[in-house]
Task: inverse folding
């Protein structure tokens, strides 16, 4: 599987634009969520990484959290983003693999 396959076949996005930037963006938020729920980040460190990732844009942040939940990559209780599902961990693994090759 390569970047184009992940962008178009796995995630169902079009192939226009910059798939690398898009997939890197998704991979980075999955990694942040995973680190937090694996107790590798304190709440303070997590919040700093979230602000840096989304450039303090709450609209982008919540859109991503809702999309990840809708697609089954995360699961949550009373608030988003929640934690990675098995599918979320697999997507993170695939993204790490294909983005490392590029």
Result:
């Amino acid at each position: 599987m390569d970047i184009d396959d992940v962008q178009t076949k796995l995630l169902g996005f079009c192939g226009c634009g910059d798939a690398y930037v898009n997939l890197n963006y998704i991979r980075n938020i999955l990694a942040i969520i995973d680190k937090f729920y694996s107790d590798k980040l304190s709440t303070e460190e997590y919040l700093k990484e979230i602000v840096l990732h989304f450039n303090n844009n709450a609209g982008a942040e919540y859109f991503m959290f809702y999309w990840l939940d809708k697609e089954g990559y995360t699961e949550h209780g009373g608030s988003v983003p929640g934690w990675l599902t098995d599918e979320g961990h697999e997507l993170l693994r695939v993204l790490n693999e294909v983005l490392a090759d590029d």
Notes: The radius of gyration is 13 Å. The first strand starts at residue 74 and ends at 75. The mean pLDDT is 92.
